[in-house]
Amino acid sequence: MLTIGMLGGMSWESSAEYYRLANELVRARLGDLHSARCVLFSVDFADIEAMQTAGRWDEASVVLAAAARSLVAAGADLVLLCTNTMHKVADQVQAAIDVPLLHLADATAAAVTTAGLRTVGLLGTAFTMEQAFYRDRLTAAGLRVLVPPAVDRALVHRVIFDELCRGVVREQSRRQYVAVIERLAAAGAEGVILGCTEIELLVRRQDSSVPVFPTTRLHVEAAVELALAAETTAGKSG
């Protein structure tokens, strides 16, 4: 089994989901007492959030690239950047390491395409919804991406940072997110990407009238599939 490197802490609330899901998926696949081979580097999110707000993306890329190198040094065979927003610097992180960085948007786009959808809504931080780095990756995969209007974007962003990143899950916020999703569906979205790892703490599949694509789960599923493919190959050769 390959060792999965998790570059997390942005926020640790969602990184805990990454760890839990990886272990649950490996146990479901292999049974018995099996768990995922993984290493975790967790940054201080306060530092990263300050860089985001100030637009100091180059500085953030240096921090995350160094963390990714630490993961590889610890034995990681592949790396997950456990945050949608910081995929803005994914290319710089990949350039710093000699193992694959599994891009979260690629795993998500593959799931949307497999589901037969072409037009999707995107929820996430303001950076993810408003900047091109994430939407362009989805568009390059053949998808049409819709984002909420400004008022809804502000709501989605506020709930992420003021509530979900702090471990606060409110029913009122769930209802507000569901309303945003319904407005995206009315605008033509066939499904909605939960493009912030914390949103999965709030929005469940049953909350939406259209399919939702939980990026954390999709990212981890792709990583586990790759990690266990090595085990399957070894087993066949043996």
TrEMBL record:
Keywords: Isomerase. Pfam families: Asp_Glu_race. PROSITE patterns: ASP_GLU_RACEMASE_1. GO terms for molecular function: aspartate racemase activity. Belongs to the aspartate/glutamate racemases family. It comes from Frankia torreyi. SUPFAM superfamilies: Aspartate/glutamate racemase (SSF53681). Its EC number is 5.1.1.13. This is Aspartate racemase.
